[in-house]
Amino acid sequence: MTNIPETGRTPRVQIRLVVIQILVLSLLGTLGGRLWYLQIREGAEYAKEASGNHVQQVVEPAVRGSILDARGVPLADNETRLVVSASRTDLLKQKDDGKAVLAKLAAVLGLTAEEVAQKVRLCDAKTPQPCWNGSPYQPIPITDEATPKQALQIRERAEEFPGITAEPEAMRRYPSPGAANTAQVLGYLSPVTDAEITKAQDTDSPFLRSDQVGRSGLERQYDKELRGKAGVTRYEVDNLGRVIGEAEADPAQPGSNLVTSIDARVQRVAEYELNEAMKEARKQHDRNTNENYKADAGAVVVMESRTGRVVAMASNPNYDPNAWVGGISAKDYRKLTGKSSNYPLLNRAIQGQAAPGSIFKVVSTAAAVQAGYDFDGRYNCSSSYSVGGQVFKNFESQNHGPIDLGRALEVSCDTVFYSLAHREWQKDGGIDPKGKPKDYFYKTAHQFGLGKETGIDLPNEVTGRVPDREWKQSYWDANKAGWCKTGKKDGSYVEKIAYENCLEGNKMRAGDEINYSIGQGDTLVTPIQMATIYAAIANGGTLYDPTVGKAIVSPDGRTVQEIAPEAHGKLPVSKQTLAQMDDALAGVATRGTAAWRFGGWPQDKIEMHAKTGTAEVYGKQTTSWFATYTDDYSIVMTISQGGTGSGASGPAVRNIYDALYGVSDDGVINKKNALLPTPQKDLPKIKTDGTIASPKISKDPAKEQQTYQKATEGGTPTPGGTQPAATAASPESTNRDTRRRARRRGSRRKRT
User: Fold this and answer.
1) How far apart are CA 593 and CA 688, in angstroms?
2) Rounded CA separation 64/227 (Å)
3) Which pLDDT value is given to residue 88?
4) pLDDT at residue 340 above 50?
5) Could you report the per-residue pLDDT of 72-86, keeping only the tens digit for each?
6) Residue 478 is inside which H or E element, if any?
7) Would you call 418 helix, strand, or coil by DSSP?
8) Which one of 93, 169, 288, 492 is most buried, counting C-beta atoms within 10 A?
9) Taking a C-beta distance cutoff of 8 angstroms, is the pair 352, 526 a contact?
10) What Å distances lie between residue 586 and 519, 627, 628, 690, 708, CA to CA?
11) Which residues of 218-247 are buried (b: 16+ CB within 10 A; e: fewer)?
12) What are the CA-CA distances from residue 15 to residues 4, 12, 18, 21, 669 (Å)?
């Protein structure tokens, strides 16, 4: 007999079957619930996402707007080039990360494998230029100078070049019309970074990965207007990537055009004359250092006196902005940034700072009048001025006797300003003032707009420096430890200065104010600041924000947004004082320190005003300054380590004026040869299709001006065409650019 039930199931087996049934039903219930959740509860959302997975976007870059000069001549525009690009995403899918493909590509393009590899590597803190600072998902341009033959090779053998494309694209171009470089003013472009894309994604001007953005100059300042809006076409594709329809398309919107106040012809003349002046300065012997002047850098600004608009702005050394187009090479990058380059990317017109020397005396003159001194009073222009046993000499120990402030400007008498500044220092309480000093000389400089940005529409402008009491205290706080560590009472000149600065570097000493009164010491200005000041003297006292942009014109030409001149202040002088200063500065050009540079100038037709300046810089040769204006224009030039103001910069500034007004060396005015006898008021003509009419420009206006001057040498002036300078003295007797010869031990100077 057996005791197994007929069913074959024991109670234990039955329990197990029940448990299994419960588990199966639970799993089915869970799956059913999840299916309901996915298909019914969240079905619409997942359907939307699934649809998105089958849409691909194709980006069409917008054509960047052109940058034009005041007459419509393109300074920056676009041209179609054959661009060879590499996709890092596709290259990294290959076993060797695309090294073999890039090497083969280099051979086709006539480049080295290293050059191509550098182009596609990503920039980071440890990777030097050249490298790619754009998005890693964006095609990286290898060259924009591919020949049709090279492009055809790549496209016909596409299987040998996976991840490589060769397509015609619109590329930025800087044509240098009339040989006008304009590099630092225009700036350059480079690819947008992921960080910039993220930052701008919620703004009214978001970036796409294909965008190029301005990195300096006008390209950066007006990037939003110039960039336009890229087009995006969305295609529906199946799971094999085949296009099954067009979902949506947003056409590309080209960028607007920027009309500037720059005149390409005047720009070329300014660049040429600055460069020639620097070359000539290098031929001159410096008696102080017993070697030729280095003349290593310089800048010149040509500005409309009544509006603040910039007609020309040159900085030397310069560079070719086309070097950045399509990605910069390692060789070009080293040229632009290496120690021996002297930093050509720097726009010295707005970023170069130096002591101004005697062109600063217009500020000191206004300060003296504010302090209560009579402009027509008599002040002793002695050969030297003594303070505390230290002797401060006039330039070449000149002694002009008692003169008024106007004559002090004409002959650039240092000792008159030494005396006035010293008196004010004493009135303010000397080195330990009680109460709040009036500090007229420093407050007036701030009122003239020094120590802060002018507001020019270019990025990265520097402020210069007014070394007032607040600055001295903050500078002392930051440097006291170092001065006290290196200073020695009986050490070298530098060690003695450090010792005195350690003890009382936060106090305004007599030597500080004396140096400051003639634009020396710790005072720093930029050429654009001084051009703005001299333009204000010319126009009756209004300090304008300098501007380069004149109007923004929409691509179709229907919308024109003019950029109107704006003022940021008034000179702190009365109309009477301003008129007296104006007369004195006219005297500088006819019988003062600049007379030998303006001999034969038609003063009765075009009244010229000028001020020369030569600034001492510790450890370097002197800096040349030349500031001038007429009713129409203000021109300021400076040359670092170039020598005297009228000696180095004077001839170049005179030549620029000759070109503007069509004046020959003998004073004859030929209006047909004048580049811009009056400032350009009208905007260039816009055609019905939105393009802007562009006049022809000669190959090299500067060379044409030279030819004209040579042709008129020895000619006979037309009646009334010229008015001789009252006293066109020789360079030896009138080039009083007021370099202070004596040095007060411990006096504060600009140190570099």
Assistant:
1) 53
2) 5
3) 85
4) yes
5) 999 999 988 888 999
6) helix 469-486
7) helix
8) 169
9) yes
10) 21, 12, 9, 46, 27
11) bbbbbbebbbbbbbebebeeeeeeeeeeeb
12) 17, 5, 5, 10, 120
